[in-house]
Amino acid sequence: MSKRILLVEDDASIALVITAALEAEGFTVDHCDSIAGRDRFLAGHAYRLLLTDVMLTDGDGIETIGRVREADPGLPIIILSAQNTLDTAVRASDTGAFEYFPKPFDLEELIRTVTQAIGKAEAEAFDVPQDVPQGLPLVGRSAAMQAVYRMITRVLRNDLTVLILGESGTGKELVAEAIHQLGNRRSGPFIAVNTAAIPGELIESELFGHEKGAFTGAVARSIGKFEQASGGTLFLDEIGDMPMQAQTRLLRALQSGRIRRVGGRDEITLDCRIVAATNRDLLPMIAAGTFREDLYYRLAVVPIELPPLRDRVDDIEALSRHFLARAAAEGLPRRHLTEAGAHILAQQPWRGNVRELRNFIYRLALLARDEVIDAASIEPLLAQTDNGTPARMTEPTGSGPADLEQAVTHWLKVNAPEPGEVYDAALAAFERPLFINTLGQTGGNQLRAAQILGINRNTLRKRLSDLGISIDDYAIRD
């Protein structure tokens, strides 16, 4: 069979560039710009590969790929699209496409992928789901998010362990939920556990369960998160904060595919997909001996790195409008964002990433006086934050008990955190000034500060690092 390729592309300039590049590699290229033209070419010739756009002159190219699959199940297909959403990437994946390229794309990478696809002796077999859920949880069309979407689609038809990396607030749990909702295990439960929020002495019981009488207070059998996630997905968040002993038991469970409840004798076979996440850089922790290297490689079978919001500025407007719509659906006043308002939002640093943007937009929806939100509506709220930038929620001030109570009351009125997030949001707002005040009192003495706060010194160091507080700023110098 000749090296003949069918290119279906309605943009003449893009078609010309792709055709020239493929012909330079020795391929013969037939070109058309419609579904009807595609079907005529496929009926009259044998092709090594189909390279097709999504939006064509007579319809959606993805919707009719099923006809191509029925006629030639082994034909490799590469999909191009300017409709750069997770929904498009998932739909492309569901067709069994060899690869999906969002526009604009790297031409050299496209040519390499064409060669790889044609070189495969056998086409992969894909199970195309018939009930892909609507309302996908991720928003954004930036190039950085396109890379994330492509990685997500590659893990939907398998149970490989995924490690999601990214700063706090980038949406790691949303990615885990998307993998679950769109994957083979979507009919099972999605169980999320924050390993950093569980006391070290309880984490094994929380994950693996325990038998009655296993320890003081174990008055009945308890089913752990692994068993609760049977048939579905177990999401282990903040995996970098897991105690070393628990890391060892988790590694053993992943290696053997079996667990044993604390105090139990029977082994239980695991039936869940593992997705883990962390905002910490695990490699230095491995070097320091605080995270197991073998566990890292067991978890990072497929790493997915989420970009911070500063690397996807083009998505801020879409995210802001999305959160305004969500806020309205949850009972807050309906607001409309102007281009000028979107522009000023895009200029902010958003060091707390998407989570900080979301909280700010909800606060804006509640407190803005006008239905239409422009720069004049946004600037007063920005001015209430640190140095005029929304790096975090407005922090409380006050020196005594009465002042503190007033500060809390005022903070709640000004910030209006989302229902269900009041505790976490308040803790985040009060924690930083609490640490700063304590370090100021102790002259930067970490041991004394930890004693005053009633926390472990290592916990203090971690929280100072997470909050970006430098101990050097408070050390007393001669």
Identify the notable features of this structure and list them briefly.
478 residues; alpha/beta; Rossmann fold; Helicase, Ruva Protein, domain 3; 4 domains; five-stranded parallel sheet; 45% helix; globular
Task: Give an overview in words.
The chain is α/β, with parallel strands linked by helices and 478 residues long. It folds into 4 domains: 4-119, Rossmann fold; 155-305, Rossmann fold; 310-392, Helicase, Ruva Protein, domain 3; 400-478, Orthogonal Bundle (Arc Repressor Mutant, subunit A), CATH 1.10.10.60. Helix content is 45%, strand content 13%. The protein has 20 helices and 16 strands. The protein has a 5-stranded parallel sheet, sandwiched between helices. Strand 4 (55-56) and strand 5 form a beta hairpin. The model is unreliable at 121-135 and 386-402 (pLDDT under 50).
Strand sequence of the main sheet, in spatial order? 2-1-3-6-7
Averaged pLDDT, please? Answer: 82
Number of strands: 16
Percent helix among the residues?
A: 40-55%
Summarize the structure.
With 478 residues, the chain is α/β, with parallel strands linked by helices. It folds into four domains: 4-119, Response regulator (Rossmann fold); 155-305, Rossmann fold (3-Layer(aba) Sandwich), CATH 3.40.50; 310-392, Helicase, Ruva Protein, domain 3; 400-478, Homeodomain-like (Arc Repressor Mutant, subunit A), CATH 1.10.10.60. It is built from 20 helices and 16 strands.
